Amino acid sequence: xxxxxxxxxxxxxxxxxxxxxxxxRQLEGGNxxxxxxxLRGQEVEADLATPAGRSTAIAAVRDACRGALDGLVCCAxxxxxxxxxxxxxxxxxxxxxxxxxxxxxxxxxxxxxAAVAVSSNSASISxxxxxxxxxxxLEGDEAAATAAASGxxxxxxxxxxxxxxxxxxRNAVAAxxxxxxxxxxxxxxxxxxxxxxxxxxxxxxxxxxxxxxxxPLGGVGSPEQIASAIVFLLGPESTFCCGTILFADxxxxxxxxxxAI
Length: 261
Known about the structure:
It is a single chain. The protein is of the alpha/beta class. The protein has a single domain, classed as Rossmann fold (3-Layer(aba) Sandwich), CATH 3.40.50. It is built from eleven helices and seven strands. Strands 3-2-1-4-5-6-7 form a seven-stranded parallel beta sheet, sandwiched between helices. Strand 1, helix 1 and strand 2 form a beta-alpha-beta unit. Helix 3 packs parallel to helix 7, helix 5 packs antiparallel against helix 6 and helix 5 runs parallel beside helix 7. The longest helix is centred in the middle third of the chain and has 23 residues. It starts with 8 loop residues before the first strand and ends in a 5-residue tail after the last helix.
């Protein structure tokens, strides 16, 4: 294993709060060594909205894990209320993809390596998500994607999360991932009581729409519930999962898209 002590070493972006912090807590409760990445207060401090910040994060994680990594969770993200909207795309999609690409080689040297992206059920249920922003993301054109997202946080959020889920599906089966023994999957949370969601609830325009989202199981999710799904995809119980998008949203996606399969 990466640490040489029998403990798994797992890097988690967005680990200072919300779902990322709970992922960290659960992993450490299972005796994993966590390398946290966030703007501040973690082992690696970096701004994933910028190419320079992504390079800093990749180099720092590589140094901290001493050449091999057993797991990676890209949880850092910005909500639809964040301004400027361009940063939502830069963090949610390009920041995540940069970390996956930049750390893939050392993941291949880990023990039972697994990587998990955090998408969102908004990727599948938000009208207009499958449009120019998502297309530019998947073409790797950050300038075009951020320009298309300008002034539209809702589209920036749902489109970046859709693009991230598609990136996972397209890459999970490729030689550098599955062929190298690395499992790549994603979780698509629904409304989850985190600081990110609270910011949306407090927004004059977004709040009513969020509260109106039907959740068959009733009520919003908790960080513990989403983190448990992420930890599952990192662990030995999910070793046949490859390119999976695991919805953890209380049934909202199934209710809205019952014929999706």
